[in-house]
Amino acid sequence: MNRVLMIAYHYPPMRGSSGIQRTLKFSQYLPQHGWQPLVLSASPRAYANSGNDQLAEIPKEAIVHRAFALDTSRHLSVRGRYVGWMALPDRWVSWCLGAIPAGLRLVRKYKPQVIWSTYPIASAKLIGLALHKLTGLPWIADLRDPMTDVDYPADPVTRRFYRWIEEKTVRNCALAVCTTPGAIVTYTKRFPDIPASRFALIENGYDEENFANAAALQKPPTPVAGRPFTLIHSGIIYPSERDPVPLFEALASLKEGGTVTAARLRIVLRATAHDSYLIPLIEKYGIGDIVSLAPHIAYRDALAEMLGADGLLVLQATNCNHQIPAKLYEYLRARRPVLALTDAIGDTAAALRHAGIDTIGPLDDKAGIQEALLRFLELAEAGRAPLASDEAVAANSRRARTAELARLLQQVSVSVPSAQVKGTSEAC
Q1: Which candidate, 413, 422, 427, 423, places its Cα nearest to that of 116?
Q2: Residue in 187, 109, 182 with CA at minimum distance from that of residue 148
Q3: What residues in the chain have per-residue pLDDT under 50?
């Protein structure tokens, strides 16, 4: 069996966003394509939220090493404060100290044919770059979304560091994998001297087995008559990339006019990771009877909640036009009505329209939100809201995505001599 060294911060027992599922499902299904995963992740101490609910999904074929890592903000701060360079490029940069030597030992012992690393933790790219340079193994950089933008990251020093990492990654990797067509367009324009063949597309997806398990917990959705229509947003709400202020303004206006009331609509924001930002806003606009916050729950329970929701809410700002939230694919598989507040020309809107869903409105326009929300409610309450087509759902499975990754691994793989790999005898 071929082997791939997979560098990923987001991996069980970490709990959090749907983004964890990308690496987990790749590692779960790659053995079916003749690839054994060697997962190089972080020590669980680095995770602010961890649990055992998905550990059983790690395949028996996988070799998992959790290297030393700390969270600067929790482990190296004094009264909540720390020196800025201690969190460059991110708060988990200490992971490099443990992961690079650990990765070299894994390469020396198991002799993988390919290195694969995944964003959104920038330190993972530093680890991938270092191991590629030290071993000479081909490196597939799973960029997912663009690492930088005009004003992202917001801090100029961090942004310059990210841009350096981004350029080194694109110029040294064998393939750079993105999750949306727009991200590939961004990179081909940003690096016009790099051949377009260096960029590949593997979108995110959903896992059918996870949904089958979740369905066992959830009864079919019941009619909304006699109770408010429940709209669920499952996952992180970033203050910039998914700012709900215009939505809250729209809700306040509709409530004042009597069009939307607590008897008609209930919006649940599940596991936002920014409750402290949202609570004052909900109070400010007087919509606490309509909008509520809910804590993080186990992944299977979150899927069950999606299956039982009257509707599902997507928030994606214009500055993320070349990104698609990972949970969107789970929303499509849940086959529940979807209200997407996003830019009509962005990749998220395009993916929804491709799946046959047109209940889309802007995130940054109060009047547009009001119009989109009222249209959505009218369609959903009447049972006429569009749902994802069977073809769109089938094409987005994690199994299908893993087959795409296996093809890329085979494309760049090399024969590793049994004696030694470049640099490992000296480093280890």
Answers
A1: 413
A2: 187
A3: 416-420, 424-428
